[in-house]
């Protein structure tokens, strides 16, 4: 489908339906996500917190909790798959639960939502079926079912979270597929940026907690390379605040890491297209990020 014929006209219902008709299922949410989550039921409580309901089908949504919430322990939220195509975010959240979470249950209660956008996971998409970007939709009322479901669920828990790690990727397709689609949908001009080669973090401009971010970077550095800034000292158009860290206005932009209002938050960004990494290394980088964050919180007497 060519999106260049009417660059000055925003997409309407017809264009959005045409875009949706071109999307294809490429992998199974049930087989590679839900089945793994269900295997965790001996060590964790698994909750279905909602269902995405689309004309193309329904998708159950799952969160994984510590077995028994101790009111004396701080609560940690981990989210993955807000952008479904960002595979290591989903698999990294699951891998953390499989391999590391039980090492930290004496210190923390966990709520983990490994795959917030399962249709995006199956079709390898940034958007949902209605061409909304879930990670610009964490505001009320949310235009995206994916964001609305997890926000309503977290509110229903009625607990305060100390930290929120939101696990993402930045890929070459951000420039080749998703930014051009955004330009077409909104009838705007978008300049491509250099995709950073390596791992980086997005902190919160309003609450940057630089030592927390630094601890995460130092942990990840042990398993993969950290992205350098470009010749302007920027990454994806924003100033590098410290090695491997940029900051966004997470709440204002409707980003997932901002909705939970935590004292400590970070969005991880893995670069799976680097010649220096493979799928397994990307998953390990996500786990290392979570571990680095938790170790920092333990060492700084926040628990």
UniProtKB/TrEMBL annotation:
CDD domains: M14_REP34-like. Residues 25-301 form the Peptidase M14 domain. The active site is at residue 269. InterPro entries: Peptidase_M14. GO terms for molecular function: metallocarboxypeptidase activity; zinc ion binding. Coiled coil: none annotated. One of its GO terms (biological process) is proteolysis. Gene3D superfamilies: Zn peptidases (3.40.630.10). It comes from the Bacteria. Belongs to the peptidase M14 family. This is Peptidase M14 domain-containing protein.
């Amino acid at each position: 489908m060519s999106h260049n014929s009417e660059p000055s006209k925003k997409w309407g219902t017809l264009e959005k339906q045409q875009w949706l008709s071109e999307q294809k299922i490429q992998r199974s949410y049930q087989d590679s996500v839900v089945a793994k989550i269900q295997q965790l039921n001996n060590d964790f409580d698994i909750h279905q917190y909602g269902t995405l309901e689309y004309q193309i089908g329904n998708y159950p949504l799952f969160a994984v909790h510590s077995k028994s919430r101790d009111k004396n322990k701080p609560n940690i939220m981990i989210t993955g798959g807000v952008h479904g195509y960002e595979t290591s975010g989903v698999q990294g959240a699951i891998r953390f639960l499989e391999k590391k979470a039980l090492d930290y249950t004496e210190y923390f209660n966990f709520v983990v939502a490994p795959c917030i956008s399962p249709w995006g996971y199956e079709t390898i998409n940034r958007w949902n079926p209605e061409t909304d970007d879930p990670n610009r939709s964490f505001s009320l009322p949310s235009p995206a079912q994916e964001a609305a479901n997890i926000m309503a669920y977290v509110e229903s828990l009625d607990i305060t979270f100390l930290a929120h790690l939101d696990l993402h990727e930045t890929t070459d397709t951000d420039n080749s597929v998703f930014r051009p689609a955004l330009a077409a949908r909104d009838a705007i001009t978008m300049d491509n940026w250099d995709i950073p080669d390596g791992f980086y973090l997005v902190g919160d401009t309003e609450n940057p907690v630089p030592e927390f971010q630094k601890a995460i970077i130092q942990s990840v550095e042990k398993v993969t390379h950290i992205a350098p800034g470009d010749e302007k000292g920027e990454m994806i158009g924003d100033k590098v605040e410290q090695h491997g860290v940029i900051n966004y206005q997470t709440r204002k932009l409707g980003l997932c890491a901002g909705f939970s209002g935590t004292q400590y938050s970070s969005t991880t960004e893995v670069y799976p297209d680097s010649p220096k990494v493979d799928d397994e290394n990307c998953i390990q980088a996500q786990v290392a990020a979570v571990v680095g964050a938790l170790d920092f919180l333990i060492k700084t007497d926040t628990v």
